[in-house]
Amino acid sequence: MTRRGWVLFAMMAVLWGIPYLLIRIAVRQLDPGVVVLARTAPAALLLAPLVARRRQLGDVVAHWRWIVVFGVVEFGGPWYLMSSAERHVTSSFTSLMICAVPLFTLVMSRLSASHEPLSARRIVGLVAGALGVALLVGVNIHGDLRWVLMLLVVCVGYSVGPMILQHRLAAVPGPAVVFGATAVVALAWTPYGVLHWPSHVSTETVLAVVVLSVFCTAGAFLTFFELVKEAGANRSTVVVYSNTALAVLLGVALLHEPLTTSIIVGFPLIMAGSYFATSADRERGNVDLVVHE
Q1: Contact 177/35 with Cβ under 8 angstroms?
Q2: Which range has the worst mean pLDDT, 17-31, 135-149, 240-254?
Q3: 282 has a pLDDT exceeding 50
Q4: Biggest CA-to-CA distance, the chain
């Protein structure tokens, strides 16, 4: 990978590594639906002039159906569920669960017509990753599994979204897709957000939401598309491991979340499992993954 590619890779590791911390801060005062609205609306407004200047609004209109579906499964649903879960689980736990998305993507690809047979290497990867997730869930969750189920649904959404990009929106410019998707989600959540808007919001919460929207959504996706151009979609997905490690470190250092034995053991299992389970796909270039927060 070129020097520019490494710079973009490092930027993505940060831009998709800090949202878990910021979401955890934001939901202390904001309803999860308000977080979704506050994250998508400014991003859409920021991207609108860029899309208009590049004359890509026609692409949004022409492909609006699949852009809407992508927005729902990648932004609208997952971000609400993740924000809801982070009211009850740590940001470290959340990021580690999302790190299992490549495993879900592999399972999703098995349901498509173009799937490949599972090799022994990939089976070992699936088993290792599943053990890592089971270890995290079994040790960190006591009694109420609703938050785990929410994060599992997030993983499903993050697995379906890239498949839509690959098979239905491959010809649409990235900024147009992200603009259309965030705009649709923002419009859908506006009535709910207005009804649940808090009477008082701290400066810390405002800053967290601004960074989430401007940098971790609009900026991150524009950076990611540049990274894909520079290094290829398959190689770019390795960023998931870096951003998860950063998310865990930030949770421990800034939110004083515990660095448990299950995290120390579970993270390498999930990381290794995701790598081995999807490495064959990367080599053949048949499955493009996008993993973020």
Answers
A1: no
A2: 135-149
A3: no
A4: 56
